[in-house]
């Protein structure tokens, strides 16, 4: 039972490059989210999805795109990387039935933009 | 808006009890979570409170007062492995989605 799988674990990019952070879950969860975690800022929501084909913006969506073509996958795209996007990115998923369902997090992607 | 406050750092002694507080002001409320996050790792779920009162789970307990916008996480019989950050998070129903807002976390150091 893999849970939430994120790839890559580490990535270094140059300013202006684009890339896609992959996230996959095998728990048949409807809800999926992307967060970034910066020192002193806590986890901040970038984008989220309530099911295949449905996505919406979170607190800090600028510079990022998402899509959800299947229940399992929720990739995050950086369109033109900027140093301000240097962060640790976490993907999370949860079951939609009931507010008490906790989020399950992937191991994170540590991204550095030079 | 959403505002969740936690102390930044705490230190406690192995074997002791520590209480980590969380206060929140959010536009909606549909439950409060506590997560544990060891350095360099992903957050993992500890507890959930939606009604007032104390929820106990082994060495960990979590308390909620909705009228005061206040919660605490109580860790008993502290062990060295409890050194981690503890994240308070509030669930707020937004449309058809249960949006979760996280506090900045409390870094707990357990010393011998």
Which labels suit this protein?
heterodimer, A: 114 residues, mainly beta, 0% helix, B: 112 residues, five-stranded antiparallel β-sheet, 61% strand
Describe this structure in words.
- The complex is a heterodimer of chains A (114) and B (112).
- Chain A has 114 residues and is mainly beta.
- In chain A, 0% of the residues lie in helices and 51% in strands.
- In chain A, strands 2, 4, 5, 6, 9, 10 and 11 form a seven-stranded mixed sheet that branches. In chain A, strands 1-3-8-7 form a four-stranded antiparallel sheet, with no helix packed on it.
- In chain A, β5 (42-51) and β6 form a beta hairpin.
- With 112 residues, chain B is mostly beta strands.
- Helices cover 0% and strands 61% of the residues of chain B.
- The termini of chain B are far apart.
- The chains are: A mainly beta (114), B mainly beta (112).
- The A-B interface holds A 31, 33, 35, 40-45, 48, 50, 56, 58, 90, 94, 96, 99-100, 102-108 and B 4, 30-31, 33, 35, 41-45, 48, 50, 87, 89, 91, 93, 96-105.
**Main sheet: strands, sense, barrel of chain B:** 6 strands, mixed
**Total E-strand runs of chain B:** 11
Distance between the termini of chain A: 36 Å
Strand segment count of chain A = 11
- By DSSP (H or I, 4+ residues per run), the number of helices of chain A equals 0
- Ends apart, CA distance between termini of chain B: 41 Å
The poorly predicted ranges of chain B are none
Order of helices and strands of chain B: EEEEEEEEEEE
- Tell me roughly what share of residues is in helical segments of chain B: under 10%
Structural class based on helices, strands and sheet pairing of chain A: mainly beta
């Amino acid at each position: 039972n893999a849970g939430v799988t994120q790839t890559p674990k580490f990535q270094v990019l140059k300013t202006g490059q684009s890339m896609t952070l992959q996230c996959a879950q095998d728990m048949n969860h409807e809800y999926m989210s992307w967060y970034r975690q910066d020192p002193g800022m806590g986890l901040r929501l970038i984008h989220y999805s309530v099911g295949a084909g449905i996505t919406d913006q979170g607190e800090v969506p600028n510079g990022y795109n998402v899509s959800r073509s299947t229940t399992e996958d929720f990739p995050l795209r950086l369109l033109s990387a900027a140093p301000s996007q240097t962060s640790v990115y976490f993907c999370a998923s949860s079951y939609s039935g009931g507010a008490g369902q906790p989020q399950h997090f992937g191991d994170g992607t540590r991204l550095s933009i030079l | 808006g959403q505002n969740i406050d936690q102390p930044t750092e705490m230190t406690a002694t192995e074997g002791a009890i520590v209480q980590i507080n969380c206060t929140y002001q959010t536009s909606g409320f549909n439950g409060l979570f506590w997560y544990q996050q060891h350095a360099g790792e992903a957050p993992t779920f500890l507890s959930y409170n939606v009604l007032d009162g104390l929820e106990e789970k082994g060495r960990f307990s979590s308390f909620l007062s909705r009228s005061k916008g206040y919660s605490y996480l109580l860790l008993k019989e502290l062990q060295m492995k409890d050194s981690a950050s503890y994240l308070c998070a509030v669930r707020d129903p937004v449309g058809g989605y249960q949006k979760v807002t996280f506090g900045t976390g409390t870094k707990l150091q357990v010393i011998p």
